[in-house]
Specification:
Layout lengths: L2 H15 L1 H9 L5 H14 L8 H15 L2 H13 L4 H15 L1 H20 L1
Helix pairs in contact: 1-2, 1-3, 1-5, 4-5, 4-6, 4-7, 5-7, 6-7
C-alpha cells in the first residue's frame, strides 16, 4: 500500500459515500484496520482510479456484481455512491431489472429492497 493510493482512495470514498465513509473510518478498530486499509488503498485508491472506465460506469458494474453476489449491505452503500457518481434512480432500476434475467429473481428482489431503502431515505432528506 502506498500513501498516495491511500490518500486518493480516502478522497474518492469521501466524495462517493460522504457520511458513510466517515462512519466507516470512525468505526474501524485495530482488528478491522487491515481490511479498511486494503479497501481504501487497493479498491478505491488503485482500481477505481484506473483509466478506461469512468466512475459512473464503475458504479453501475459494481451494483450489478453485488446483486449477482447477493450482497445487500454493500448494495446499500454503493447505491449512495452510484448516485454521487451520476447514476440516476432510473438507471439503478434498469440495472436491477436486467439482473432479474442474469442473477435470478430472488437476488433481484433482495437488491431492489436494499436499493429502495437507500433511495427512499435519500428522497426524505
Amino acid at each position: 500500500m502506498t500513501d498516495a493510493s491511500y490518500e486518493k482512495g480516502q478522497a474518492l470514498m469521501k466524495e462517493m459515500f460522504g457520511e458513510v465513509a466517515e462512519k466507516i473510518a470512525r468505526e474501524t478498530t485495530d482488528f478491522t484496520q487491515p481490511l479498511s486499509d486494503y479497501a481504501t488503498s487497493t479498491c478505491f485508491g488503485d482500481v477505481w482510479q484506473r483509466p478506461g472506465l469512468d466512475n459512473k460506469t464503475r458504479s453501475m458494474l459494481t451494483l450489478a456484481m453485488l446483486t449477482a453476489l447477493g450482497q445487500q449491505n454493500q448494495i446499500k452503500v454503493h447505491v449512495a455512491g452510484a448516485i454521487s457518481n451520476g447514476v440516476s434512480k432510473e438507471e439503478i432500476r434498469e440495472i436491477l431489472v436486467h439482473s432479474i434475467i442474469y442473477c435470478g429473481l430472488p437476488r433481484a428482489v433482495d437488491a431492489f429492497g436494499a436499493a429502495n431503502e437507500v433511495l427512499d431515505g435519500m428522497d426524505k432528506k
